[in-house]
Amino acid sequence: MEADGQKGRYLYCIAAGGEKVSLGPIGIEGNEVYTLPYQRFCAVVHNCRAQPYTSADQEVVKPWFIVHQHVVDVAWERFGTVLPLGFDTIIRGGEGHDPDENIKGWLKGDYDNLREKMEKIRGKAEYGVQILWDPMIIARKITETNPDITKLDAEMKSKPRGAAYLYKQKLEKVLKGEMEREADRHFKDCYHRIKRHVDDLRVDKTKKLDKDKQMLMNLSCLLSREKSTGLGEELEEMTGREGFSIRFTGPWPPYSFVTSG
Amino acid sequence: MEPTREPHATLVDLLDRILDKGLVIHADIIISVAGIPLIGVNLRAALAGMETMFEYGVMQAWDERTRAWERAHRRKKEVSLAQGEEIILKMFGSHFYSKGIYTTWRSGFFYLTDRRLFCGDFDEIILQTALEEIRGIGIKEMDRPVARGKREELFLLLENGKIVRLHAQDVNQLREAIEKRLTEMGLVWEENPVLPAREVRPQELFLTDGEEVVCRGKMWYLMPASSRRGWMSDTWMPGTLYLTNRRVYWQHSLEEGTTFATPINAIIAAVTEVEGPNVLLSKKGVLDVICGTDGVRTLASFSGEEIEAWKSILDGIIAKRGGTPADRERETCPQCGDAASVQELLENGCAQCGWVSPRFKKQLAYVAVGKPFG
User: Fold this and answer.
1) Which range, A69-78, B249-258, B284-293, has the best average confidence (pLDDT)?
2) Which one of B116, B153, B163, B186 has the fewest CB atoms closer than 10 angstroms to its CB?
3) Which residue has better confidence, A200 or B162?
4) Degrees to nearest 5, angle at CA A43 with A37 and A47
């Protein structure tokens, strides 16, 4: 029997375990997190109002994200395998159903699909690999080593202003093309090297993290923690190249590998 | 190298996962976000982690192409052959692809088999011709597409008059192999045929009979999320916007299958965002086009240098039909039914119940006020 203000269930993840347990008051806003089992899985939830968490204050919102992830981590530790959900997934009740019934109904209907997903990720974690380069350094290297460009550059420097400007335009166009090709080569090279160490991977959109650097590749990789050492070693070898840097994050619960229907 | 999850250093990585990914529930049991007013600037934008459209340049287009390549790569590894078909030669190369106003060199592996020549990039066959179709073969020195200098290219003239133009690691070896196989098959061909000086440019292929392009321009389109297509959130995509005598049509600059279209008669209003809360797009602004048929309203968002010009054009079309421009156009809030001007609804949300358009709801989630994070 819920209080009127508790008609929602904030859903953190689905865990591979069939017991009803409490994980303690570790949820968002200090709510008690507990499990709702169905056969061999359970939904990890806390009771909340039937509306999403929103706030005008960054300092309020940021801890919510951290808490969300912490709860998923605790469940991951406790149950071994979890299918994580995105932030603010709140299950409602309906006409005649309470939210727990809705959850059980969904778990029942989607059981096989969930079981398949659990199998796929069992014993594995998600790691983020991002490769960045400093375009100024790379452009300089290309200018120094590419004979066509070196020649254009030298010719440009010997010309008076007007003509030099035209050369500069052409140089930039050629340089852009070369950089694209270089980026392409590196992407494919790094991709194939990394692929050898992982069980699955997703190519994500590149991001702008730093005004001086360009991200060439943003990958999410699925692999066991043991294999992550091998991946780390491969990345170590790749960091040596001038102008390149690598960000290696994780282990994350496999957010990127449970998404498709 | 050790992976890290240090919270201060990996907050963006965390947000990318918990805001964009995670298990999707295909059942109508979730509280949707659309009904709740959300105001302000996205926390991620404050962290400078958002993909920023106004930085569009070579690298961003390249990024989309590479990801498209990877998607294709992921699907399948082997190329499929017919029963009994054998590969004679496999060689990496590229062919010149031209469709409408879009031309490029598409690379992949050339496979010469006992019955056809095709070029595939993993699962996708991007060029194919049966060997019997080859009427002429020639090699010409052509300018390199990007760098200075020349290179040899192989031209195949086909029965239907079409010309296949390609480049490969060893163009001569490829030609010899093709000619050898043609001889074995008892076929004849013309050596170094005369090629037409210039390929005739075909019309834009999406045009229907009697449809003509009135104007066109480069424009970004906000493609709605589609788990089926692999877009996890609304995504800005580069392309070309066309106005024809029948429709407004947009096509992705690289992926032809990715389009948006609406008949002219369905356009109700066009609104440009004058000064929105969306700091990401403030440099170029956004044109919102409201379309509707049979009471169902959709919103198409575009961005580019010429949105004001497009707005004038669309306003003109609406006026000619007897409609009114958006600031006077009255519409009802989809949520509470309160009447308001279209412009007001799109820029500020509904004054009555706080509804905001779907494009804003994602961008404006989880307020950050004032100072940047950290």
Assistant:
1) A69-78
2) B186
3) A200
4) 105
CB B259 within 8 A of CB B252: yes
Kindly state whether A254 is in contact with chain B, defined as any CB-CB distance less than 8 angstroms.
no
Q: Which residue of B has its CA nearest to A213?
A: B59
B11 close to A (CB below 8 A) = yes
B contacts of A77 (beta carbons < 8 Å): none
The answer to whether B59 contacts chain A (CB < 8 Å) is: yes
* Farthest-apart Cα atoms in chain A, separation: 85
Which chain B residues are within 8 Å of A254, Cβ to Cβ? none
Read off the pLDDT of residues A111-130 as tens digits, 9 standing for 90 and up: 999 999 999 999 999 999 99
pLDDT of B224 strictly over 70: yes
- Does the interface ipTM go beyond 0.90? yes
Q: What percent of chain A has pLDDT over 90?
A: 57
| Residues of chain B found within 8 Å of residue A174, distances taken between Cβ atoms | 146-148
**Which residues in chain A are closer than 8 Å to B56, comparing Cβ atoms?**
none
**pTM exceeds 0.95, yes or no:** no
- Over chain A, what is the mean pLDDT? 89
Partner residues linked to B221 by β-bridges? B237, B302
Q: Which residue of A has its CA nearest to B7?
A: A66
**Distance (Å, whole) CA B236 – CA B219:** 10
Q: b/e per residue, A125-157, with b = 16+ CB within 10 A?
A: bbbbbbbbbbbeebbeebbeebeebeebbeebe
Whether the pLDDT of residue A255 is over 70: the answer is yes
Residue linked to tokens 């997903």 = A117
Chain-chain contact of A58 with B43 (C-beta, under 8 angstroms): yes
